[in-house]
Design brief:
Elements lengths: L21 H11 L1 H33 L5 H49 L3 H6 L2 H43 L1 H24 L1 H23 L1 H6 L3 H53 L5 H42 L21 E9 L5 E10 L4 E5 L6 H8 L7 E6 L2 E2 L5 H6 L1 E4 L10 H6 L7 H10 L3 H5 L18 H14 L4 E5 L7 H14 L4 E5 L11 E6 L2 E6 L1 H7 L2 H14 L25
Parallel strand pairs: 3-8, 3-9, 6-7, 7-8
Antiparallel strand pairs: 1-2, 1-4, 4-5, 9-10
Helix pairs in contact: 2-3, 2-5, 2-10, 3-5, 5-6, 5-7, 5-10, 6-9, 6-10, 7-9, 7-10, 9-10, 14-16, 18-19
């Protein structure tokens, strides 16, 4: 975007700058589409001007017909002008409708894309704090709200304003005092609407907030319908949603009734003003100060202006509600981001895939330190496992490698390049990550695997699936690789989703593969097949695997043991077992659990609990 404050000065479209106001956001689209909006405004103004001129032609026709002797030629000319103006008005309205369609639809597409770009730049914690359904509703509804706002201005505000300006000219020709009276009325009413409309803004904003929240809550319940049914919670959720809906309805009623009270007052003023203007015109006619045509045109324009000003009043209130919704959406989506690229940040220069952590420290907001002075060097092509109790910092380390957060001190280097100085997307292109909870798109299996590398051929997709031990079960699905997996992959089991996620990562041409508990839901045979693929098929790739089952890391080159945010052990599985430290103790606990038919959870210790041999170690 341009200098509207949407992108930074470097012009990087992936890094939109925060907006100063809702006005700046809307003004950007008016500037970007200024040719369309200028043409639309010209057409609407032209059509409304024709409508006023039609009333004046009617005055000329009535005067010509009422004149004694009759003015036939003048009446014919007035009639011809009347017909021509009606035709011109119709043509201009139809052209404006065509252009308005192209403009509002085009802006709606651009706006949704821009809002998505802003949304996708937020950190992952942001998405944990907001319902996905609510965010999606805001993006879609904001584009629709802009279209409604544009239509309100184009069809309900501009024409009455043109009517008013044209009527003042005609009234001035009839009686300048009528023109001043009408102008004073409109100015007074507009000022009153501005004051009362601003007072109602908190009500409109509250309704916008409740509406978005309830919409997201409803989507969340629908998305978790299995849990609702499994825990016999249909009535409970119905009751909870009823409370939320009623709360939203109360906010809607407050906003709506405030508007209705404004309209009642306005209708009373309208009645008084219309009666006064018409009585005045008839009185002047009885004094032979104005013609019959003047009375007709004053009558017609008075009702046109007064009804038009009522439409403007309603439209202004509606506009305030629409602006309140846009303002609320930007308040949620356009928040300050915690991870941003430096101005002019370079792209990663991809090489072999060497990783290095230098005294990395990280603390979550209002939380304890998750990592403390972690020093690790991982050569390219090395297979490294990461183990430790819950809360030890394993997932935090994976998040920092992806730069989902920035470290507070120290630095992380990829192929010798500090990642905090690189473009985020170029960094993540060098990483293929498989989380424990793999989420899939509501697309086919083929599309989900190919998401890792969109230009991959079908044969390459099939090869990645075989390496991830999922080719067999995929071909047994109703439509094979063309089977739609459902929202978030709900049609597949947890293990099947994990294998599809691993195939997607295998397919991605990335020098570093990160597995964060990526095989936790797999059966032993599938897990062993995937481990063989990692060791044999990915020989040139650097692999970092977080795991609770230590046996899955036995063939890895090296294992890092984290505890309390510190690196306490570093070496191969055989070396660590020989040291009889933390890793050896965990290995024995898991082996004993397996012999007794159940694997204990030694990793589920309280953060900060002491384990034997938990002294920090220097990097290998």
């Amino acid at each position: 975007m341009d200098d509207a404050g949407v992108h930074d000065a470097a012009g990087d479209p992936a890094e939109p700058r925060r907006l100063a106001s809702t006005g700046a956001f809307l003004a950007h689209y008016l500037r970007t589409w200024r040719g369309h909006f200028a043409g639309l405004l010209a057409m609407v103004v032209g059509a409304a001007t024709c409508a006023v001129a039609i009333q004046y032609q009617m005055k000329r026709l009535v005067d010509a017909m009422a004149h004694e002797p009759r003015q036939v030629e003048a009446a014919q000319l007035a009639l011809a002008g009347f017909v021509a103006l009606v035709a011109a008005e119709s043509v201009l309205w139809r052209l404006s409708g065509w252009l308005a369609c192209r403009t509002t639809v085009g802006v709606g597409v651009a706006m949704r894309l821009d809002l998505f770009r802003r949304l996708s730049g937020q950190p992952m914690r942001y998405f944990a704090d907001h319902l996905a359904g609510s965010l999606g509703h805001r993006v879609t509804a904001t584009a629709g709200t802009f279209g409604a706002l544009a239509n309100t201005v184009i069809w309900r505000i501009v024409p009455p304003c043109v009517d008013f300006a044209g009527a003042l000219v005609i009234f001035w020709l009839v009686d300048w005092r009528m023109a001043l009276a009408m102008a004073g009325y409109v100015v007074a009413v507009t000022a009153w609407l501005g004051v009362t409309g601003e007072r109602g803004r908190p009500l409109h904003r509250r309704y916008a907030e409740r509406s978005s929240a309830v919409g997201g809550d409803l989507v969340d319940v629908i998305a978790n319908m299995w849990s609702v049914k499994a825990f016999s919670a249909r009535e409970r959720e119905w009751t909870r949603l009823r409370s939320r809906f009623e709360d939203e309805a109360a906010a809607q009623r407050a906003s709506w009734m405030y508007t209705e009270r404004q309209r009642v007052v306005y209708d009373v003023v309208l009645w008084v003003m219309a009666a006064s203007m018409l009585s005045w015109a008839v009185h002047r006619w009885t004094q032979h100060a104005v013609t019959l045509g003047d009375v007709v045109v004053v009558s017609a324009l008075t009702f046109r202006i007064l009804h038009g000003s009522r439409d403007v009043a309603i439209a202004l209130v509606d506009s305030l509600q629409q602006l309140a919704f846009v303002d609320e959406t930007l308040r949620v989506i356009d928040r300050k981001r915690t991870v941003v690229d430096e101005r002019g940040a370079p792209a990663l220069r991809r090489r072999a895939g060497t990783l290095e952590l230098r005294k990395v420290c990280f603390r979550y907001e209002r939380g304890r330190e998750a990592l403390h002075e972690v020093d690790v060097f991982i050569p390219a092509g090395q297979k490294v496992g990461i183990v430790g109790p819950s809360g030890a910092g394993k997932s935090t380390l994976v998040h920092l490698l992806q730069r989902l957060y920035d470290v507070q001190s120290g630095e992380i280097l990829l192929d010798g390049q500090p990642i905090h100085r690189l473009q985020q997307d170029s960094l993540r292109e060098a990483l293929a990550v498989v989380p424990q909870e793999v989420t899939l798109f509501h697309r086919s299996v083929l599309d989900n695997i190919r998401f890792g590398r969109p230009d991959a051929s079908d044969d390459e997709v099939f090869a990645a699936a075989r390496a991830a031990a999922c080719d067999g079960f995929v071909r047994r699905l109703p439509h094979g690789y063309d089977t739609i997996v459902g929202e978030r992959g709900v049609k597949l089991s947890g293990g099947q989703r994990q294998r599809v996620g691993i195939a997607r990562a295998f397919l991605k041409d990335a020098p570093i593969l990160v597995l964060d508990e990526a095989t936790s839901a797999l059966d032993t045979e599938s897990e062993l097949r995937i481990q063989r693929s990692i060791v044999t098929s990915l020989g040139e790739r650097t692999v970092i695997a977080v795991a609770h089952r230590l046996s899955t890391l036995a063939a890895f080159d090296r294992i890092l043991v984290l505890h309390g945010g510190r690196l306490v052990e570093d070496g191969s599985a055989a070396e660590l077992r020989a040291r009889d430290g933390v890793f050896a103790r965990l290995w024995r606990l898991q082996a004993e659990g397996a012999l007794h038919g159940a694997v204990p959870a030694p990793f589920e210790s309280e953060a900060g609990a002491e384990w034997p041999g938990c002294e920090a170690v220097a990097p290998s």
